[in-house]
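Reading a protein record of the kind used here takes only a little practice. An example makes this concrete, so a full record is given next.
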Amino acid sequence: MTPILRIETNILEGLRTNFIRETFDTPGGQKKEICFHKGFLPFESYKDRVQSKEKNSDIPFVLLRYKEDEQTLDRGNYNSSVAWEIIIGTYKESSDGYSVGLYIADKIKKYLMEYPNVPRKFNVKQDYIKTKLLSEESSGYYWFHKLEFRTYAPYYDCKIPL
């Protein structure tokens, strides 16, 4: 497993433990725990979706997605970081339904930014975190938020004997 994939796995494990036994509304009128995914939502064929009794079974979800990584060299010092985004999908039959996604985003932000000196299996860069409502994607009672942040990553160097 590459270092970036290991960071991704560790972030998701930490987020899962932060939401144990918390339930949220679903389009079917039930409540359920958040589904956590990395990369993209799992593919469900049209046939499976039509035959499923649970409408939009992915809601509520938290999707962790790798965006990019960069490495710089400044006066002999390497720095490396990875940019991530988290998409949060929720459902609530209310005009203030956005507040559910905002609650989840704030709880994630608190987890990521709190106690930077506590040893974890990843380190968040404390200089950037951004949350926003995805208003164009949100419609009806479906609400989507995006949270962006960066983590430190191991760097790669080249030792060329002179």
In short: The chain has a mean pLDDT of 87. Helices lie at 3-18, 46-51, 98-113. The beta strands are 24-25, 31-32, 35-38, 61-74, 77-91, 124-133, 142-152. The longest strand covers residues 77-91.
